[in-house]
User: Fold these one by one.
Assistant:
Number 1:
Amino acid sequence: MKYGGRLLTSTLLGLASLNIFAAEELAGFSKDSLQPDEAGLWMVVDKQEQSIRTSSILVDDPALNQYVSDILCSLTGESCSYLRAYIIRAPGLNAFMMPNGAFFIQSGLLLRVSNSSELAAVIGHEASHYFRNHTIDRFRSTNRTGNTFAVLGALVSAASTVSINSATSYESLSRSVDLSGTAVAMLQTAQIVAALQLLDYSRDQESEADIDSVSWMSTTPYDPTASTDLWQGVMDEQAAGGESAGFSILATHPTPSARLDALRKEISKFPPKLSSATSESDATLKSLVNSHRDEWLSDEMDALDSDQFEFLMAKQVENGYPQYKASYLVGLSFLNKAEKATSKKDKRENFSRAAEVFMQGIESGGLDVQPEIFRDLGKAYEANDMQPEAKAAYARYIEVAPDAWDAKFIKRKI
């Protein structure tokens, strides 16, 4: 298949074989069958879905959107007709399914999946939450604890102010970075997630979603073992970020070691898959994401702490991203962190780290290295009072980019 999505026919992927509810049994598929509390939630998320569909945050890439939709349909069979997949430009590893069947996957997640099987694992997991009405169940549980209006209020208020930052929590959104005109739309998405975060899933619901996802993947060429690889990678990235780690799917989908062990046990019930079964699909996914990778990584750089971003970029390099480009972005992250630091010690350490990473990029990039890396290396040296090194870096910048927009200004520093 060109996009690697519908790897099996809908006949093979009928709902009976998937062991999920039949379409007519699925609460929420018809507005006419909704209970009053469901109808209220449906009305709100319908409105927000329409808003996002016309916003600048929506990734306008028919091929990539079709790829994601095809995987969703290959896992859910004929019930795919109830679902709609959207890709949104938002940093951080996250995906979520609204109670009305709208599935949103963030660009940050697409950056982090290594292959189509890892992507299928997330999609299957989220689809299970929808088919099993987990969001509705949590909504009703929240109603009993008196937080219903907090949920609806957060959803309804998704209409204005700054932008999304994949920050420590969504409470810190007001301090996030403006991403080139997408601020309001990105905040709307963030507030929807923040509201649904109040409906975090129970341990049993997570287990059900894990089992469903593994079971569905076992009937396709996708490898269920990829789910443990993905979750482990998420945990490792969060650990790298420490207390400053950005928001991720772990906020609503906790992944303790016991859960990973249970997931591996479930996977062991099925015969192993050949990685070659999805090789074409994996290559297609990588190619589709590559057309957006630089832009999306810039969003991640703005959103993540430098240590977590450095971990993310190391993984990008493992998957084929050029080292010199990764080093430049990591260096910029530490440079920005240094400029925002309040103590002299933190400033000096981060400027030094920025210079170190910039040099790594220069050494690995050779003639392909971007000219700006020399200019920014000069900034890092100059900030740490290393004037000879700074002048040498600035001179190299002028040598390779004599017509740069800021050349006249930089020449004054040499």
Note: Confidence is low (pLDDT under 50) at residues 1-29, 145-149, 151-188, 247-252.
Number 2:
Amino acid sequence: MLPQRINLIAYSTLAVIICYIDRVNISVAIIPMQEQFGWSDSQVGFIFSSFYLGYMLTMALGGYLSDKFGGKRVLGWGVVLWSIFTILTPLAAHNGFFALFFIRILMGIGEGVTFPAWHSLYARWIPFNERTRAIAFTNSGVSIGTIIGYIGTQMIILAMGWEWAFYIFGIVGLVWFIFWNRNVTSYPNEHKRISAEELAYIQENAPSSEPAKKIPLRQLLVNKPFLAIVAATFANNWSLFVFLSFLPKFIDNELGIELESSTFVILIIIPSIISVIALNAGGYLADSLIKGGLRVVKVRKILNSIGFFGSAICLFMIPFFESITMIMVLICITNLFTGAAAGGFGVNHADLGPKYTGSLVGISGSLAMIAAILSPIAAGFILELTNSWNLIFFICSSVLVFGGTYYLIFSSADKQFE
């Protein structure tokens, strides 16, 4: 019988996979939708960004509620909410641009609780020496969900029409909720099937075992190590959400690979597969370095710097190549570097305040979500005004250098919030 914390990781990773399927399916569906409804590139940018406006609204709230009342209910009902609005997306699109804009905000409100909720659960369930690789594994659900969302949506569009991509994937989330509700608890001591040995091990080694009190918000917003996480998350989000939103359009419009072709599938899949491998390797590397005696703060700074500065160099180089092969190689290498950062800013929250982990993830994510709102809008306008991707890549590279430098200078692994 698998340890119950492994079951929690499996169900949480499935939630992240479903989260990203429902988030990115519109990135492929937008190609026929834009043709059908006649939207401009700037309107497409606003459609992508509207999701993150809703997402930003509930990240901090989701973290607070998860730390105070338990992450099980928060994540479970978040999945139900966004799944319903995923199913309603085609109805909204057929009722016009503003109806779709509004329904994407509502979808974002549901998805916004996802990462704070499972981070809060992991702070109470996952022993410290397993934490980085558990978080890296769950974060690899981003890439797995992206692969399934991109390729599954393409297949559904060709077989049934773009509307069915939203119907089918929305139903998947509702099915997941049934199993989640039956098999997961917010705290290890609430689980009826956990063994006495596993419970004792978790309670002795997990970062936190109690609900959080009121988050020290004023102290939080002037704390330099916390702001370093915010800066790194902002920089990561800027590049991540440009690519999640526009990669299918980049391959279709800029590289000239049509949606219907098998080459489109290959070019979509390969970078995401590299990302899954790199994220898990980065998580194991971080845990191994810490176990080997390297100070936690050094591990965080070294791996984060490799990830951010390496990615920045690759993105900066892309506009100087015309070969599809070279461009895709650089995108894949970018994802390799990003995997190294799995042991950096993304797992730093529990170092600073274990029992506030959900809140720290939520608040930092909400502040950094400004990047996810602005970057697709900026990319849409740049494409409309210049018909070129070069400036988009240069901006992504510059933002990564800023975020990596700020994190390198100000980050810490010392506990900041008791």
Note: Residues 4-37 form the longest helix (34 residues).
Number 3:
Amino acid sequence: MRGIEMKMSETLSKNMKLLDQNTLGGFGGVGEGMALQVTSKGKRILWIAHEGPPKNFSGVDVTDPKNTKVICQTELPHQNMRSNSLEVTGDILAVAYQVYELGLEPAGVELFDVSDPENPKSIGFHSTAGPNSRGVHCLWFVDGEYVHIASGAPDFTPRHPRDDQIYQIIDVRNPSKMEEVGRWWYPGTMEGDDAPPPKRIIPEPMDQLRGGDAFRLHNANIYPDHPDRAYLGYIDGGAFILDISDKSKPEIVSHWSPHNPYPGFTHTVLPLFDRGLLIVSDECIKDDGEDWPKLTWVIDARNEKNLVPISTLPLPPVEEFGHRGGRFGSHNLHENRPGPSFQSEEIIIGAFFNAGIRVYNLKNPYQPELIAYFVPPGPENSRVPAIQMNEVYVDENGIVYAGDRWAGGLYVMEMDI
């Protein structure tokens, strides 16, 4: 089913136009993974991770962005897991596997050869399963050599059950024999650490593995032109810059956190290298504005050992959006990754759940300006009445691909900025 016929009168938009919507064959719950492959024959395939079962990942031909077509859709090994995150480099697709109960398998990273996009072939699996592991929530793979993951490990025992996913560096140059070459975790979160455990920001019941109240890794961003630095969003632990020039011994360069008084869950740390800035998003994880404000911060990082917040990206009033349905606040950013990807140090594009996709001009970092947005109506069969834009990817031509968390699938847009 296509959603291009939806009532545009219900859409809020400025300087953005919908080109196509694809509900992915009725499996339109999109996770936090979108990656674009350009094949040897010139086809453009957008790989999409799903929010949860039964589907593993989908491949969508977006060569014509006004007429997208699902060409591949795979099944998860079982229903008690998810593949929330993926990346593609060349013809190699890396997929994250996270299970819903400690100790289940498969948990880890699987690599696929997608040179024939309609027929992905598994070429390697790295397990991170263990008695205290849920596997991999998020991964980063942009250089063809290393996958950077937020994961549990068979030999890692957290002091608190939600502090289970740590930073690990996996060498994938030999896909049939992937191996961990480095790791780092927030001091005090592992049993036996000399450091004391971190103070909880907003304590939650101990029987819930997912959710907030966590000192664990979410995103790790590492760029080939700055291979000695890792930029980590460590949820309630805030933002970290690590020196990974020796991958076996990552070391802290600097740390910044607004939590507390702000309510936690640092998600992404996006460096703007030429300008000495960081864009840091705090993910909204509660419906109906319960954890407002969840902001996206602009950080002066010219002195990377002294990170200073200088502004936030403006959002619409919580009084208008807080109770539209579902989550309202920051989440994923377009991350300037290598490959067929939009690159800018002035234009920032993000997914803000029920506030849709929003585009900012950062020419003046002290006064970010909203220059475009697209907020479609809530899709049919969603768990909530409003759109829940969960992920965003922008190609080198400025075409914006975004995904709804529950049902809307893929939205393809163009910007007029």
Note: The first strand starts at residue 12 and ends at 14.
Number 4:
Amino acid sequence: MLRFMMIFWEVLLAGLIIGGLSVYLMYKSPVLTRGDDAGGETGTAGIQWEPIEKESHGYSEEEGREPQEDADDMQKEQNKSAEREEGQAEGVIYKETRVPGETTLVFAGDVLLDDHYSPMISMKQREDGVKDSFSEDLLKEMTDADIFMLNNEFTFTDRGEPTPDKSYTFRSETGNVKYLFDMGADLVSLANNHTFDFGEISLLDTLDTLEAAGMPQVGAGRNIKEASAPVYFDTGDMRIGFLAATQIERIASPPTRGATENESGVFRCLNPDILYKAVREAKENCDYLVVFIHWGTEKTDQPDWAQLEQGAGLASAGADLIIGAHPHVLQGLESVGGVPVVYSLGNFWFNSFTLDTCIVKVTLDTQGMKSFQFLPALQHGCRTSLMQGEEKRRVLDYIRSLSPNVMIDEEGYVTFL
């Protein structure tokens, strides 16, 4: 009898232990369900494992992170999102760069999309349009740039009358705005002497066309506030500002009207005080400021007095880089008060003439300008190509002769002395 009772209590104790262990495992182990009924990952024989949610013990399983770290990151993302929404209302464009921590800027001179002139006539006859109008290596530089800027030397309109007594008036079909995107443009300047070629309606149509297409512009507007407004690109690591202005048509009442408080027009800067003020204000809101300016005397490779005077003034006001256009030919490079100045980019894709031209490629990081490269190109037969070999050396030598205070290596990298 005693032996029977001992066996009974041993069996009962074992049963209690096994039962308790089963209950423990049920709450601590994954639940087994059929693969047909669940949405988790399917294991052997169609069985899926659904982990039971664990209690929080003051840590995150992801790399052992503390909950406060996750909360901080979430708050940072919310703050960044709010900044983006606010920035978009203030003319800030957010741009992800190809190389983290670096931003590549590329600049080109005058571009003409007038349907009645040779470049557009030729392009529309070519099988691949833009691809056949630029060499492959040049188009790659244009489209690979984080920010590619050019001078929009025409209007987008089919209305208005040509400006009386003006030798050349340019306009393009509004649908041609797509070619700016095909070229890789991220921003255009309207601060030039052809933005008003067919009267006020041509400027307004140009503004409407660019806005509808989503192409940012600087240098013109429906009033002086718009015309003088900068555009900012925020790359996450830095904010880069762009301003554009024109001093061309140096007369009291120019055909290309300057914007006023109540009238549309371009941002005129023959009297530079308003431009210097805009530069100072823009620099307060960005890390690096580019001024793209329409200036100089046509068809001469030497900067004139107004370029030299305003270059120094812009540098003093806070510009970090000054890019010039209008002379239709190349001019030299110079450092003014530690600020790089390109006096003229020349024509880029503008007519059928054979002409030396270039793009300028500037790489920035959080410390400022990391590199500056002058890349010679040739406009020929309504096609623009990067130069190579002897032709490239010829143009680099020419730019060296116009730029006594800089050093330019064989690849076009520039050191400003």
Note: Residues 2-28 form the longest helix (27 residues).
